[in-house]
Amino acid sequence: MNIGIIGGGSIGLLFAAYLSDTYETTLYTRTKKQADVLMELGLTLKRDGFTMIKRVKVVPISEGITYHNLLFIAVKQYQMEDVFPIIQDREMPLVFLQNGFTHIKMMKEAVSKEIYVGVVEHGALKQGNTTVEHTGIGVTRIAVYSGNLDDFPLYHEEVGTFPFIAEKDYQEMLLKKLLVNAMINPLTAILKVENGDLIENPHFYSLFKKYFEELSNIFELENREHIFCHIEQVCLATSKNRSSMLKDIESGRRTEIDAITGHIMEIAIERGKPYEMTAFIYSLVKGMESRESE
């Protein structure tokens, strides 16, 4: 099987490192510089104190993409505006791995009749252009947007310690992920703390619980206690991790605040729900984002 992966960030590098062990894999990067250095030095995967060099075919996306039996789109939500026109008319199975819901609107315009949505629960840290550290072993959850769930080929394959799990409802799956992202990413970025501090610090935990109340009201959650426990467990399981939004702020990069918290504000307005904390959190991160990029 021939697999393509668009995106040379932490998730794209992680997928390429693991899937290339079993399948013919091509990684598409935004820059020629990254493609050249990966082809020269190889892709370095770090995990549990071990270091492995993977040899993967790497191509700048500006040179175009070829047909693949499965094409993963592993770029951030705000990068989809540049990437989607490249894949919009391609008739091949597509897997979108973005946070939030904004990409769902784009998927409606895709020609492909076989489209999947994925949620990545692995921890990954990119170190330079050629190295990714697997900081947390997890799973990738896959749900079908169009087509047949049973046709997703990696359900039926053994991919070592990199499993894919089927989910029946992509909207429910993405909502659960959105709530996790909304509760952890902006708060850790604003407070400049590791994930576990949101639970372990009593003052932060009070804020954490208060914000969940607002989100529960916006989305009219039925099983609130179960969902809150799930978010708590994610915090504790990744207690020493620094969220992607915190790392983006620290590095002066654009964050995904619009795709996460901005999307929640839109939902709240549509439903006539109060969203004072959400708006406050959004403004704080946007202010930090603009300050750090100066």
From TrEMBL:
<comment type="function">
    <text>Catalyzes the NADPH-dependent reduction of ketopantoate into pantoic acid.</text>
</comment>
<keyword id="KW-0560">Oxidoreductase</keyword>
<feature type="domain" description="Ketopantoate reductase C-terminal">
    <location>
        <begin position="170"/>
        <end position="289"/>
    </location>
</feature>
<dbReference type="GO" id="GO:0005737">
    <property type="term" value="C:cytoplasm"/>
</dbReference>
<dbReference type="InterPro" id="IPR013332">
    <property type="entry name" value="KPR_N"/>
</dbReference>
<dbReference type="Pfam" id="PF08546">
    <property type="entry name" value="ApbA_C"/>
</dbReference>
<protein>
    <recommendedName>
        <fullName>2-dehydropantoate 2-reductase</fullName>
        <ecNumber>1.1.1.169</ecNumber>
    </recommendedName>
</protein>
<dbReference type="GO" id="GO:0015940">
    <property type="term" value="P:pantothenate biosynthetic process"/>
</dbReference>
<feature type="domain" description="Ketopantoate reductase N-terminal">
    <location>
        <begin position="3"/>
        <end position="145"/>
    </location>
</feature>
<dbReference type="InterPro" id="IPR013328">
    <property type="entry name" value="6PGD_dom2"/>
</dbReference>
<comment type="pathway">
    <text>Cofactor biosynthesis; (R)-pantothenate biosynthesis; (R)-pantoate from 3-methyl-2-oxobutanoate: step 2/2.</text>
</comment>
<keyword id="KW-0566">Pantothenate biosynthesis</keyword>
<dbReference type="InterPro" id="IPR003710">
    <property type="entry name" value="ApbA"/>
</dbReference>
<dbReference type="InterPro" id="IPR013752">
    <property type="entry name" value="KPA_reductase"/>
</dbReference>
<dbReference type="GO" id="GO:0008677">
    <property type="term" value="F:2-dehydropantoate 2-reductase activity"/>
</dbReference>
<dbReference type="Pfam" id="PF02558">
    <property type="entry name" value="ApbA"/>
</dbReference>
<dbReference type="InterPro" id="IPR008927">
    <property type="entry name" value="6-PGluconate_DH-like_C_sf"/>
</dbReference>
<dbReference type="InterPro" id="IPR036291">
    <property type="entry name" value="NAD(P)-bd_dom_sf"/>
</dbReference>
<keyword id="KW-0521">NADP</keyword>
<dbReference type="InterPro" id="IPR050838">
    <property type="entry name" value="Ketopantoate_reductase"/>
</dbReference>
<comment type="similarity">
    <text>Belongs to the ketopantoate reductase family.</text>
</comment>
<dbReference type="GO" id="GO:0050661">
    <property type="term" value="F:NADP binding"/>
</dbReference>
